[in-house]
């Protein structure tokens, strides 16, 4: 298929929908895993693992859940009219439900001697399990044709529309771990300076192993003592908290959502981990329920784009449509959009503006 132009883009997006993954999506999921840049531990390009992922997701969407546990909810961005799956994204209800979730936490130590009249602040990285309780947004992969479109934002943020509806299933703290900086040869300078000494494997290999095998090897082999940053290579230090070049816009969008850079970074590539309390997110604060009113597409007034989600757990659907409200607060939807969402006139849908205010990039000074 040819590149969608800006003009055809919104037209094409009309038929795109976020829905839970099904077993029929397995081949597409495998493709998306293979084409993720860089490859993701949370989305291993391995048919068996992906099959398990789908089974697990179906159980999560259809199960009764009162508090977050080891559920994984996997979504796809689909063009069901053409039978195409264009992207995927997952929510892990609890980052470290069965095994701990490992990060490095940036800390400061003071090395002082009164006798020698020296006082040095030394930055360290200490292994941490603190992020284990957070709900993790992960395993994002999108067909490159849709990069930079509103479909990308929909795929990334529809998960928030889901969490907003089923708060008991998720932690109050949400986190996103971005792939870390890799150089032009796809090497991780942080890995070369740190992990390499303990694993004698390339970053790509270890990233793959972490995806398809149990993670207990991390605890067994990673150094237990804090790392002193001055002892790392300058290239490794420069990579701490730095995202992979292909994920710059994604990070920016999540910062605009209200996520904040935390003191935690990835243990392999030192990629940034952003966190926040969910109530602080723009999409949570702006989300509002509206009854649906059906209107033919050509009679709808012009309005800002919004994410619009139905209220069906296992039948969750979320689309981008115009945020066109009637004077009495009904959301005016075309019959085509209502059909995509599986809602009739009078049913309530959750809506939140797609456009975000611009990002504030700051390190959270508190306990985040
Ligand atoms: N770059 C990576 N593949 N990191 C994955 C390993 C650590 C990850 N935080 C976990 O505990 O699951």
UniProtKB/TrEMBL annotation:
<keyword id="KW-0808">Transferase</keyword>
<keyword id="KW-0056">Arginine metabolism</keyword>
<keyword id="KW-0012">Acyltransferase</keyword>
<protein>
    <submittedName>
        <fullName>Arginine N-succinyltransferase</fullName>
    </submittedName>
</protein>
<dbReference type="InterPro" id="IPR007041">
    <property type="entry name" value="Arg_succinylTrfase_AstA/AruG"/>
</dbReference>
<dbReference type="Pfam" id="PF04958">
    <property type="entry name" value="AstA"/>
</dbReference>
<dbReference type="GO" id="GO:0006527">
    <property type="term" value="P:L-arginine catabolic process"/>
</dbReference>
<dbReference type="InterPro" id="IPR016181">
    <property type="entry name" value="Acyl_CoA_acyltransferase"/>
</dbReference>
<dbReference type="GO" id="GO:0008791">
    <property type="term" value="F:arginine N-succinyltransferase activity"/>
</dbReference>
């Amino acid at each position: 298929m040819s590149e969608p132009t800006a003009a055809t883009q919104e037209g094409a997006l009309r038929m795109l929908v976020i829905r839970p993954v099904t077993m029929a999506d397995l081949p597409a999921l495998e493709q998306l895993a293979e084409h993720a840049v860089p490859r993701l531990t949370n989305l291993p390009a391995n048919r068996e693992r992906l099959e398990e992922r789908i089974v697990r997701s179906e159980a999560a969407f259809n199960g009764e859940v009162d508090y977050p546990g080891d559920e994984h909810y996997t979504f796809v961005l689909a063009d069901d009219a053409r039978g195409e799956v264009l992207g995927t994204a997952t929510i892990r209800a609890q980052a470290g439900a069965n095994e701990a979730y490992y990060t490095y936490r940036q800390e400061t130590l003071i090395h002082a001697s009164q006798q020698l009249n020296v006082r040095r602040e030394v930055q360290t990285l200490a292994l941490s399990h603190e992020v284990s309780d957070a709900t993790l947004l992960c395993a994002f992969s999108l067909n490159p044709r849709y990069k930079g479109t509103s479909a990308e934002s929909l795929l990334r943020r529809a998960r928030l529309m889901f969490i907003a509806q089923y708060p008991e299933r998720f932690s109050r703290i949400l986190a996103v771990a971005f792939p870390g900086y890799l150089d032009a040869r796809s090497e991780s300078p942080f890995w070369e300076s740190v992990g390499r000494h303990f694993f004698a494997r390339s970053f790509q290999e270890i990233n793959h192993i972490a995806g398809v095998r149990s993670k207990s090897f991390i605890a067994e082999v990673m150094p237990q003592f804090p790392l002193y940053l001055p002892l790392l290579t300058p290239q490794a230090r420069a990579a701490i908290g730095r995202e992979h070049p292909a994920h710059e816009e994604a990070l920016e969008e999540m910062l605009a959502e209200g996520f904040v850079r935390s003191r935690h970074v990835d243990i392999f590539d030192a990629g940034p981990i952003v966190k926040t309390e969910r109530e602080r997110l723009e999409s949570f604060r702006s989300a509002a329920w509206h009854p649906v009113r059906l209107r033919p597409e050509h009679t709808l007034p012009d309005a800002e784009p919004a994410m619009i989600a139905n209220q069906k757990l296992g039948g969750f659907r979320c689309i981008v449509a115009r945020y066109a409200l009637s004077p009495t607060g009904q959301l005016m939807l075309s019959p085509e959009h209502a059909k995509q969402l599986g809602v009739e006139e009078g049913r309530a849908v959750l809506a939140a503006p797609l456009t975000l205010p611009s990002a504030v990039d700051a390190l959270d000074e508190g306990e985040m």
